[in-house]
């Protein structure tokens, strides 16, 4: 792919060529768009830097410049997207030493985080304030995510055929490509293909709602055109305000679903399967604060049990 003449090639040109060769067609379009954004930042920050000029100092300066406008985690992601290309350049002999070694990740202080989830009472109050009309609307969409914990793109892709009402099951086997041009897309990972048990109330409600709809058409997209996450977040925000509960996002509903299950004593393994996580490690990392709180409750229970033995 590369030769000695590439040593004098501009690094952003090299990077664009690298993502075309190694990433295009191998990763999801959404992920590919992130690599392209990284490329655009290279053009902006180091438009004239050649590959042979990429040293630890020049690379660190690149990260520092990027960090001035981004949070630390975003800078870390930027670094990871560059590192693969840089290490390949080292392997090709275009760079003598790895300039990413011991890189220091900086960044702006993170913004104040909004509440990530509601407790069970707050969720109940919010759901009672939804406009659950006889026609499918975004309030029904909110209810389904609250009851199942599925991802935004998974919920958009739900068709009548995905419901198995006699067995109280919902099949998750695809997503809706709302960030691009629409249409069905594969799930985030193999673990995301799953069947989710539904409660009887949800079964009765949706069995009536989807009557007469085409089996293979998404029930929430239909003729709405392009779907924006912000649109549905706006509907949820208004519902939270009417219920006088903390304002969360649609993704926060997924966190709410998981947290309620964990506090109810459902195992991490079962929650991970229901959410479609690739491993329990993902669940443990995401809900560490809840798990720690439950462990403290367990310690109190253990101590009370042991104290009664003497």
- What is the terminal-to-terminal distance? 75 Å
Into how many domains do the coordinates divide?
A: 2
CATH topology-level name of the largest domain:
hpI Integrase, Chain A
What's the CATH class label of the largest domain? Mainly Alpha
Order of SSEs, N→C? HHHHHHHEEEEEHHHHHH
The 3D shape can be described as globular
Uncertain segments are: none
The tally of helices reads: 13
CATH architecture term of the largest domain: Orthogonal Bundle
Approximate strand percentage: under 5%
Strand order of the largest sheet: 1-2-5
Could you describe the 3D structure shown?
The chain contains 13 helices and five strands. The chain has a three-stranded antiparallel sheet with strand order 1-2-5, with no helix packed on it. It has a two-stranded antiparallel sheet with strand order 3-4. The protein is mainly alpha-helical and 310 residues long. Helix 5 crosses helix 9 (229-243). The termini are far apart. It folds into two domains: 4-91, Orthogonal Bundle (DNA polymerase, domain 1), CATH 1.10.150; 120-297, Orthogonal Bundle (hpI Integrase, Chain A), CATH 1.10.443. The model has no long low-confidence stretch (mean pLDDT 90). The chain has helices at residues 11-22, 29-45, 56-67, 72-91, 120-128, 138-148, 152-156, 200-209, 229-243, 250-263, 268-275, 280-286, 288-307, and strands spanning 163-164, 169-172, 175-176, 184-185, 194-197.
């Amino acid at each position: 792919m590369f030769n000695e003449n590439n040593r004098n090639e501009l690094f952003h040109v090299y990077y664009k060529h690298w993502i075309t060769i190694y990433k295009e067609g191998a990763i999801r379009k959404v992920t590919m768009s992130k690599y392209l954004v990284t490329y655009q930042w290279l053009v902006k920050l180091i438009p004239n830097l050649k590959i042979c000029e990429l040293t630890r100092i020049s690379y660190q300066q690149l990260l520092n410049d990027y960090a001035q406008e981004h949070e630390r985690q975003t800078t870390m992601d930027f670094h990871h997207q560059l590192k693969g290309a840089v290490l390949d350049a080292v392997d090709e002999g275009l760079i003598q030493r790895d300039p990413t070694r011991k890189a220091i990740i900086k960044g702006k202080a993170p913004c104040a985080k909004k509440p990530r989830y509601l407790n069970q009472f707050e969720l109940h109050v919010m759901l009672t304030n939804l406009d659950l009309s006889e026609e499918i609307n975004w309030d029904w969409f909110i209810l389904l995510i609250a009851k199942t914990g599925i991802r935004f793109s998974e919920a958009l892709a739900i068709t009548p055929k995905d419901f198995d009402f006699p067995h109280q099951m919902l099949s998750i086997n695809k997503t809706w490509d709302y960030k691009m041009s629409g249409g069905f897309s594969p799930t985030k990972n193999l673990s995301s293909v799953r069947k989710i048990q539904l409660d009887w109330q949800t079964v009765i409600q949706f069995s009536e709602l989807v009557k007469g709809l085409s089996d293979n058409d998404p029930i929430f997209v239909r003729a709405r055109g392009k779907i924006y996450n912000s649109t549905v977040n706006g509907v949820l925000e208004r519902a939270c305000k009417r219920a006088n509960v903390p304002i969360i996002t649609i993704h926060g509903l997924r966190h709410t679903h998981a947290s309620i299950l964990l506090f109810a004593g459902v195992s991490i393994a079962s929650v991970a399967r229901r959410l479609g996580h690739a491993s329990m490690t993902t669940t443990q990392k995401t809900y560490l604060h809840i798990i720690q709180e439950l462990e403290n409750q367990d310690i109190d229970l253990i101590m009370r049990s042991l104290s009664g033995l003497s």
